[in-house]
Amino acid sequence: MLLDKRGNKYSSRPERTMVYEMGWDWALTMMPYGPRWRRHRTKFQKHFHASLSPLYQPTQMAEAHTLLRNLLTNPDDFNHYIRRAAAAIILNITYGYSVADEHDAYVVLANTTMRSFAQAIVFGSYLVDYIPMLKYVPSWMPGASFKRKAREWRRLSREMLENQFKLVKQRMAHGTAVSCITTRELDNWMEAGGSADEEELIMNIAAIAYAGGADTTVSSITSFFLAMVLSPDIQKKAQDEIDRLTTGNRIPTFADKLSLPYISCIIWECLRWNPASPLGGTHFTTEDDEYNGYRIPKGTTVIPNVWAVLHDEHTYPEPFKFNPDRFENQEMNRLAGINELPQAAFGFGRRMCPGRWLAYDSIWITVVSVLSVYNISTAIDNNGLPILPSVEYTSSSFSHPKPFKCRIVSRSEAAAALIKQTAEERA
């Protein structure tokens, strides 16, 4: 594929004037391909490489268990608690920050900021994307309301970028900071002499961990809940696999991953069935190219249609059916040329998501923990009739299942006891 094999030509980003007006020039995902992007990517990958996954797994497991406890007391608020868990994992890893169960100020700020970003990143949402010169007009002029929005959203973007970083520095000064990516980087920074450029780099990569990871993880986990409502047979098959291993006496851990292959199949199918970024990240050519007789000039915007790739019926038979079984025999799939693992969900080439191993592990531990102790089924209305959710998704740069209801009940009294026991283990 061009984005993979000719990455030297296809790895930049097109200019998004509104996004830049909002102050998102610090985000790795928006940077054009070049030395500044490489510095940020290298620094980010230093902390999120596959080999470092075990370092973060205790945090991921602890937050998955917190989710279990929250679902026991407030199952109807599952959407909120999924989002809280995803945020808590990333914020603890990057800033050593503990997220409150309800109305956490930083999470509210970050989610509000990300909603504005998701709106602006879609090219053409604002006229200034088509006519960049408009960014120079005064904000009071007719048609320049985007300037006022951009000014407010820039404030939110800067607060999201700076607030937690400043808090970590304050705690380090008082000796109360929790070890995390930011503290480790700042320790190295101070030992090296403390240049302003390096400090800015550290601040940027910490913030992009949340901006790039929380929303996509939430999307995949919410898709899992929707799939389980619609596919009780698949849920039962997964629970049987877990029960054969644990005999119902414990909640699985990361050490069980290789013994639970069907759980991995479910996760890959969630990533394929509803990719969190259906049009992927927009690429931009920095050189002229030619492909199959077609000239692709320098400065061309290239949009990888991830959703179409992962719903190609030749590669994924019955593509609209949620069917984790398709991934069970990868050797047979390879020989048949079908059902390859949907790596496209994480992007392409040099722009592939550098935090994909962290994201996958967060989804895995959440899915296996929930299935081990809960049954997920259709909600029941006031007349005792099932409320079957429709498979509908939001249309934006980040896709989520539209709000739906479901019934989440512990599988047994023993399962409920295991859930409560996680609080004692954390203490």
TrEMBL record:
Alphabetically ordered keywords of this record: Heme, Iron, Metal-binding, Monooxygenase, Oxidoreductase
Cofactor: heme
Gene3D superfamilies in UniProt: Cytochrome P450
Positions contributing to heme binding: C353
Domain of life: Eukaryota
A GO term for molecular function: iron ion binding
Pathway: Secondary metabolite biosynthesis
Pfam families linked to this entry: p450
CDD domains assigned to the protein according to its UniProt record, in alphabetical order: CYP64-like (cd11065)
Entry-linked PANTHER family: P450, PUTATIVE (EUROFUNG)-RELATED, P450, PUTATIVE (EUROFUNG)-RELATED-RELATED
Recorded family membership: Belongs to the cytochrome P450 family.
Name of this chain's protein: Cytochrome P450
